[in-house]
Amino acid sequence: MAHAYTPGLKVIPCTMFRKRRLLPIPGRVMAQLDQQVDALYVVAQTELPGKVFSVNVANRLSVAPEEIKEFMVKSEGQPVKKGEIIAENQPFIKWFKTSVESPVEGTLEAISLVTGQILLREPPKLLPIKAYVKGKVVEVTPNFGVTLESEGTFIQGIFGIGGETNGEIVMAVASPDADLMPEDLSEAHKGKIVVGGRHAGLAAIKRAVELGVNAIVVGGIHDRDLRQLLGYDIGVAVTGTEQVGITLIVTEGFGMIPMAEYTFKLLHSRNGEKASVSGATQIRAGVMRPEIIVPGFPKNVTECKKDQDRGWIEPGDPIRIIREPHFGVIGTVKSLPPELTKIGSESYARVLTVELAGGEVVVVPRANIEVLEK
Amino acid sequence: MSKKDLEVIIATDCGSTTTKAILIEKKGDTYRQTFRGEAPTTVEAPFEDVTKGVLNSITEVEELSGRRILDGEKIIIPNDGNTGADIYVSTSSAGGGLQMMVAGAVKAMTGESAQRCALGAGAIVMDVLASNDGRADHEKIERIRQLRPDMMLLSGGTDGGTVTHVVELAQFLKAADPKPRLGASYKLPVIYAGNNKAHEQIKEILGDRTALIVTENLRPTLEKENLMPARHKIHDIFLEHVMQQAPGYPRLMKMVGAPIMPTPAAVGTMTEKFAKANKFNVLAVDIGGATTDVFSVFSGVFNRTVSANLGMSYSISNVMAEAGLANILRWLPFDVEEQDLRNRLKNKMIRPTTIPQTVEDLQIEHSVAREALRLAFDQHKALAVGLKGVQQERSISDAFEQTASGLSLINVMKLDYVIGSGGILAHSPRRTQSMLLMIDSYQPEGVTRMAVDSIFMMPHLGVLAQISEKAALDVFYHDCLVRLGTCLAPKGLGKEGQLIMEWEVKTPEGKKESGQLRFGEIVHVPFDAPKAKLIARPVKGFDMGAGPGNSIEAGIEGGVVGLVLDGRGRPFNLAKTPSRRRDDLNKWYKAMSMYPV
Question: What is the ipTM of this complex?
Fold first, then answer.
């Protein structure tokens, strides 16, 4: 049977998965092998070295760089408080006395007799890494962190902004083609993961931020709204560190695109349950998509499958078309002709035929579809 | 093995997504590329061994050619009739290529020299630090700490000059305690190529914390750049440190018969060899999904820049951000809602492997490509600067020319040859599209030949040129370049419809073409003769390279497109009124048979 490889986004009612939770620099691992942890449990933490500040003592005291050692009140390695004197001259007339005060609290790290500068370092900052998902520690990476194993509903979005957060899933609209409007949101949504349908406009997103909603999951957004929300254009899809007061996950793409019915129904089946979500997206090497994870089984599911990536498509597979002229349309693979076919742009490409809901059959380059993985 | 023994060569380029293998065989006195194969690159999980992809791509060459090249996981060396190859060479840009951070005392002097040095060695420059770069000291230290480069190049000061600035930079570097991108357990390689008077102090400051390598000053005097010693050190460290940390590279290094080169360095080498062999001024561009590399050789001086976030898929949205929507929209002969265009480009960014299915979508991608090429060229011109009256061997700049008033080395009137590569240029459905895209982006003046590297073979040939320049150039001429033709563009401005040039071309076989060019029009003449003589007689006020109004005679090339006579004038500006602009675009696209009607 003809087949082709086209990976899609994962939308799985229940799957076993692993999450690596590692520190960027060595630190202390707080969780132990086989330990069951909650999403907010700190599994590892480290101290990030403090910021470094320089002060040009030679300039401030009007002396040559090699002379500053004579005027230093503090020596290398000594702690200093903000505003504390670190160097001063000793003139005959007190009136001409000049002092150099520390601009920060920290430690005097280095004194340079070549440049006449000193370097001060602020105290280290604690960096904790939380478990993010409820699960079991199955591997400990000494000094860096742990690997967690868990099972539950796993849904990938196509694009997101904002970091990791947690909360209860709340369906704010009745159908996948309904738009999330500002009036759909209320005080009751504070701290929740709000699921919309086709589209969320800037007004709805801003309203959610005001109300303290933790995350919005929606089919599509307009790029113009995203620009206004962030204050800049996202040039390259590397996200997750935005600080806009909310995590936003788009399941289908940019524009007004109904959320895939299957995704909407699955989220609906976990309504009221606690979920872990992340907007972090990275499209280049080491692809990362935003995700919604709900630990445990949906009510109607009894079996939890291992994540199996089949790696090809076959006639009968449900797919989504991801480029004009049928962008966002869902259909079923009808056939996979092996030969190169001339498409509208006059390029020759490998194509497939797709049967749409009304029975219409269209020809689409294989590069322009995405399997709806279940 | 001596060079004359080379009969069969196998070469690979390990790209971030695909590993491409080519087989080169000597046919009579000429080397020709005979078969090619490709396979997904296997640097990342689950394989984490680059050699798997290399062997797979070579296996495809074996299947297509019938030649047995592999014995298990080994390449059979030397060739023995129908088995093996005489040498195997490779380039690599997998795993993000070579990523560097550079520092210099003064941004416009040693900072720029260090940048040119690293770029020429094939690196992506993540940041340029300088004492006067406008950032507070603690911001510089934070920046060093955040970025995790493969190596760092530290320069600053002329030999014997003041040491203060470079020592200060070294102290910041020490305070930041930077970590390398690959291999958490090894020290970050730092190449010091600054004031020789500061060697001892630099060793004292950085000797313990980093893997310090001291080499000759890349800017020994203000008037001279000496980039090669530092570039050689960059290549040495790329092989000894960086490659050793990348998955499978230690094995790959044992398989090759010549040092592995970073892909852009190999493309640069090939561009230089081609320019030198023909005494051409050359511009070569590779527009990819994420980045656009620009290489130039002008008056024998080589320059390379990489625009890290100008590309056609991963970075397409950044092209929109940098160029502005209006600049993308100006190339479209139809109306598109701003919101629709924004959403389309963002959807391409998040699904980068999709391809345009409709002509309208293709035209949108072509509009973005023009702007990406233009912006990358602007960045290139800003870095490739020189000084009047200074001997320019490897030294392309000096103090005065690096100011804002500095003259760029790039002179489009003196540009002889443009080579384009990357999907949008190499695989356009019609070759006229590739040619007009490059003409619109670079606005060449006078006589400019144009070609595309259809399957991006320049990396393989660049690394091969280290062993056999003849083999590399033979394949480059016969199999790599797809000659598009020649662009004839008089410089000057006139009235719409005014006669601006009369022209005539004649092949050695006596075939003749002639005509007139009027202001505001494009004339496309299919012409495929490999060589021909041009006589162009521009009218008063229009220049084809010999001064306004002066006739020229020049050698030109035909090709798969032919001659494109561009009468739109230089500098070329699109009409301001939308309807007039759309009419012009439609007229030009029709003249070039750019798109199906």
Answer: 0.88
